[in-house]
Amino acid sequence: MNDLPRELSAQYNPKEVEEKWAGLWARMPLFHASVNPDKEHFTIVIPPPNVTGILHMGHALNNTLQDILIRMRRMQGCEALWMPGTDHAGIATQNVVERQIAKEGLTRGQMGREKFLEKVWEWKENYGSTIINQLKRLGATCDWQRERFTMDEGYSRAITEVFVSLYEKDLIYQGDYIINWCPRCQTALSDEEAPHHDLDGKLYYIKYPLKEPQAAGRKSKRNSKKTAAPEDGIIVATTRPETMLGDTAVAVNPKDKRYKHLIGATLVLPLVGREIGIIADDLVDKSFGTGAVKVTPAHDPNDYQMGKTHELEFINIMQPDAVLNAHAGDYAGMDRFEAREAIIEDLTERKLLVKIEPHRHAVGHCYRCHTIVEPYLSKQWFVRTKPLAKPAIDAVKKGKIAFTPQRWTKVYLNWMENIKDWCISRQIWWGHRLPVYYCQRCMAETGSKSQVPISNFKKNSKNTQKGIIVARVRPEKCPDCGGTDLKQDEDVLDTWFSSWLWPFATFGWPFSDQVSEDAKRRTEEQKKELEYFYPTSVLVTAPEIIFFWVARMIMAGFAFMGSIPFKDVFIHGTVRDAQGRKMSKSLGNSIDPLEVIETYGADALRFSLISACASDIFLSKEKFEQGRNFANKIWNASRFIRMNAAVGVDGSRIDPAACRIQDLWILAELNDTIRRVTKAVDAFRFHEAVNLLYTFFWHSFCDWYVEMAKQTICEKNTQEILVHVLKVSLLLLHPFMPFITDEISSVLGGSSFETIAVAPWPQPEKKFENKEARELMRIIFDAVLLLRERRHELKLNPAVKVRVRMWAAPKKRAALLAAAPVICQLAQASELEWLDDDTAPQNSLSLLVARDAHLYLLLEGLVDIAQERERLAGEIAQGHKQIKAKEALLKNKGFVKKAPEQVVAAERKRLEELKAKTADLEEIRRALQ
RNA sequence: GGGCGCAUAGCUCAGCUGGUUAGAGUGCUGCCCUCACAUGGCAGAGGUCAUAGGUUCAAAUCCUAUUGCGCCCACCA
């Protein structure tokens, strides 16, 4: 019995071990990266989780993948930096705090901006590090001392700089447009923030009467045939009848013969009484509805377009909360959906509602609160994206940035090539205020207002509007009039307007001139860091973030750094439940990763997630048992080795000449595993890497090698190999399962590293390459498997030892002879004797293995000979069938001529073997009496 | 209306650039608590690789079409 420095318990206890190592890692400065010109840099910036975030499975997957990359590159000798941080998540965080104060019966309106923001900051201080702590628990080796927050002072400077410089280049403008408006959050949203979902709605057909009904005599011949053109009015179809209160025209397609004669005529808008004209516009689809469309320029993007073209009146009928305003007349004060009901009722009463059809259509929803968004006319700030998109398109087309899996390239390009201007102003409080100041005096003169216009307006096309000041620092006075009454814009910026700067703003960009020496030095340092670590290496994220974040970071990279922000984009799958639904809090179908960590361990969580991450992941709790079981297997194999190998045994000096065949085999397998695992991670095939390790460790190492090693466990060489293979396996496993591997390594000792996180990544060793050993071991495995199989067939009790005879061609004889004890042990044979020539012993059962190695099981007392003859006949018939098929293949001229030589050669060899084997079987069968 | 992805063992999924007898985990059946591990070991059953064509000496793998499911994008109100 060796004296153990530390005992390993019979069952792995992840909780204890993981908590210990999480603590240790936190105290080690090892994950801090700094400029090191001697090393290649490897940089990942974390997709910053929301400060409101609680670790969910998507995070767990996303961050495990990043951690694997970072850990492996670190071990490979890169200066590996994983930049952590959180996102202030404007709308989401504001909503959380609003809900919190609502419990105290307060609204943010009552509190006022300043008080409310204090409350949000307070919340951030209390809960903002929740997810960071959870990431640590997952094992993430971020450079924690660099942790950034998108509302940090320095980071905010980047946002101001970007806003102002884009404004100066005329790439940011203010204007009145139809945007997506969330009536619940009461803010504008970008197109990406208002995803469309199909809803079962209704299509209402409403009759708008003509002011002067057409005289019967004016009817053209054509019109008389068309039933759709009633001469006392026009029927329009709409899904949102309440918007009719803001109608200022009805449009038809100019080519539509049904309505041609009515173009220019006047209609009386029902319920309102306003006179509106009939206009012609190509935007109108003749085949939809009645071919006539009501035009509400202030409440629909298409109608807005027509409103501009035809210089219609823009009537906004809603308040920001989607309650109808004074322009809605009798319906003022009603909610939009209430008003819809009322209007339908009133129209029905007036016999103007022609019909209602069921209609399934896509409706925009707020991505934060899922409220149906309202297309809403308002004054907002926009980024002119087309010029920014150009280099971002080129970079991907030229392969400077590569998406994996590749198919996402197309998704990205398609979006980028059809990019729309980006609405960046939000009517919330939590976020970066726009660096825009309004001179109250100038504003009063020009009559400009930053409020939503009620009706007619003209677009402000130039960025040089009087009284609007966009500046890096708050100006003292108005440059136009010298007035000092300046008011900063109330709006804040889209959260993504800060996230898109993440790959470089996290390094302290932009670097301002500093006065103090200390600050100067720090700034110089940061500049060097940015230069060294940027562009980052890989971005790991989920598909739904491509437009929000990935695409915009690429634009920002070119716009402000003049280069790509990252070389590779790895897009992983979505985590779903067993039914295939996306895991989400609202569905209540999510599996809490923290619970999994609690019951199975972080390593188990990581392993199970990664082994399933080839595509979208369908998770159930059982999936994590596989990870737990594997961890336990690693633990126990280590325990066995620890208990049996002498202290101080080290595999670094293993001499292949002193090795048995099985030793050479496992070492060759290990080499192969090192190569394949490394290659798989390089190609972002994480599931392949982890499954290779699983198979190697469990099946090759534990099931075969360790079992064989038990026989020679007292030999130092065996111990050395066990320790060596285990140690290398732990290193390979470390990026995937960091806790258990570090724990076992530390217990095994003999390492000069506090944590193997900084140990070198294993390399295949030339001296362990051995093709022959692997071939011979295949024979031994076959022998064992066949013997076991026959034992089962013969229903032999495990205690019954069988007698075996073996023959091998001279070339292989020595090696197999040496392996005989192993075969005996694994196959529970009591004796294995060697035959000098290859003739079957009397009454033996053939267990043919290969052409140059035969195995016979002595049957006496074990089996009915007649039965065995019959069984052999079946096997022989099978053999003939296979021979026939192979012969046919080799007779095929096309195959012989066109297939690669090796393939043909392999087939020839296989045919020979089959023939020999079958002939032998026949002989053996004849010999059986 | 465009675009993409997926259909392989009862279930969940691997299978990279075509090449022996298509794999794993889980479940099921049988036998084992063999001194690292029952969160374990050994063995077994289970697949016309969605369908129909095509290319090829050779197709789960490449091409075309069809069916079913899922996702994304889009200004038919």
From TrEMBL:
PROSITE patterns: AA_TRNA_LIGASE_I (PS00178). It catalyses: tRNA(Val) + L-valine + ATP = L-valyl-tRNA(Val) + AMP + diphosphate. GO terms for cellular component: cytosol. A motif ('HIGH' region) lies at residues 49-59. Its EC number is 6.1.1.9. ATP binds at residue 585. Residues 864-926 form the Valyl-tRNA synthetase tRNA-binding arm domain. GO terms for molecular function: aminoacyl-tRNA deacylase activity; ATP binding; valine-tRNA ligase activity. One of its GO terms (biological process) is valyl-tRNA aminoacylation. It is an enzyme of class 6 (ligase). Residues 663-804 form the Methionyl/Valyl/Leucyl/Isoleucyl-tRNA synthetase anticodon-binding domain. A motif ('KMSKS' region) lies at residues 582-586. Residues 22-612 form the Aminoacyl-tRNA synthetase class Ia domain. It comes from the Bacteria. It is found in: Cytoplasm. Keywords: Aminoacyl-tRNA synthetase, ATP-binding, Coiled coil, Cytoplasm, Ligase, Nucleotide-binding, Protein biosynthesis. The C-terminal coiled-coil domain is crucial for aminoacylation activity. ValRS has two distinct active sites: one for aminoacylation and one for editing. The misactivated threonine is translocated from the active site to the editing site. PANTHER family: VALINE--TRNA LIGASE, CHLOROPLASTIC_MITOCHONDRIAL 2, VALYL-TRNA SYNTHETASES. Catalyzes the attachment of valine to tRNA(Val). As ValRS can inadvertently accommodate and process structurally similar amino acids such as threonine, to avoid such errors, it has a 'posttransfer' editing activity that hydrolyzes mischarged Thr-tRNA(Val) in a tRNA-dependent manner. Monomer. Belongs to the class-I aminoacyl-tRNA synthetase family. ValS type 1 subfamily. This is Valine--tRNA ligase. It comes from Velamenicoccus archaeovorus.
